[in-house]
Amino acid sequence: MNFSFLQQYQHPSRKTLGILLGLFCAVPLAVFLVLPSCVGYMAEWTLGWGSIPFFLSRHAWAFALVQDLLRGVYVAAAVGVLDFLLLVLVYRLLDDAVTRQGKWRGVLAVAARAWGPLLWRQACVGLVLCVALWKVEGFSSLYLLPEFFSADFFAILVLAVWSVSAVVFGCAFAVTEQGSAAVRFSRLLLKAYFREWIVAAVVTCLLAWLPAVVLSKFGVTGESAGLSVFFILHGSILFLAWWSVFLIWLFNKPDVFALAPSAEE
């Protein structure tokens, strides 16, 4: 894989990269640090009325069910926000490399159209996994949340699967503009560039996992608020940098969407 395209191929401007960098700093911080509190406040306001707290305190099964539902709501909301952020990255870089319209409004419009079909399919897969792993001790829907920085290798695998599948679906949707057709075209993209997607997944895993492992060996954990912010920013910036490089290279390939006609056959 030759990355000399940074000089000879179309790539985003510094302004575009600056905006994307700002988004990948602000949005993950909001998802991992602010959103949990918002869900907690919403649950407190909803479930704090009348005799509901007393009922939950007397029925462990009901309390556990509410906890699972709240975790599921948070994971669905968090993944939905991260989905939209990743789709914006895909379509912004696609616009700079291929369509070259240069309008953020169009990028956001396409991301909004692709977001719904992508999220509900992810929700179906997540629900199936939660049901299948329900009796596994210690498992919860939080394990299905992609984390940009973690020493837990299962969490990193979730990040790799989420990022590759969302990017592939986003690329396919840009061609087909339909959810079911995008799924079919996604299979073609995965098959045609299988080694490239494997490389993308492996590098994503290493960038998110190795720094966390090294720091944990020195006893550095995210127990303080400052370190939590640092870990989130470190992981999300590396994630942005890698996927920007990979997508710019991919979109500058002249035959990257040449499979589109065969998808209609």
Walk me through what this model shows.
The protein has 265 residues and is an all-alpha fold. The chain has helices at residues 5-8, 14-47, 52-58, 60-99, 104-132, 153-176, 179-192, 194-217, 225-251, 260-263. The longest helix is centred in the first third of the chain and has 40 residues, at 60-99. The protein is globular and about 65 Å long. The model is unreliable at 1-6 and 261-265 (pLDDT under 50).
- What order do the SSEs take from the amino end to the carboxyl end, as H and E? HHHHHHHHHH
Q: How large is the radius of gyration? A: 20 Å
Name the helicity range: over 70%
Number of strands: 0
**Class by alpha and beta content:** mainly alpha
Query: What's the quaternary structure here?
Result: single chain
Number of separate helices: 10
CA-to-CA gap between the ends?
31 Å
Strand content: under 5%
Low-confidence stretches: 1-6, 261-265
Coarse shape: globular
Largest sheet: none
Q: Round the mean pLDDT to the nearest integer and report it.
A: 87
Entry keywords:
disordered C terminus; mainly alpha; single chain; 0% strand; 265 residues
Describe how the helices and strands are arranged.
Elements: H1 5-8, H2 14-47, H3 52-58, H4 60-99, H5 104-132, H6 153-176, H7 179-192, H8 194-217, H9 225-251, H10 260-263
Helix pairs in contact: 2-4, 2-9, 3-4, 4-5, 4-6, 4-9, 5-6, 6-7, 6-8, 8-9
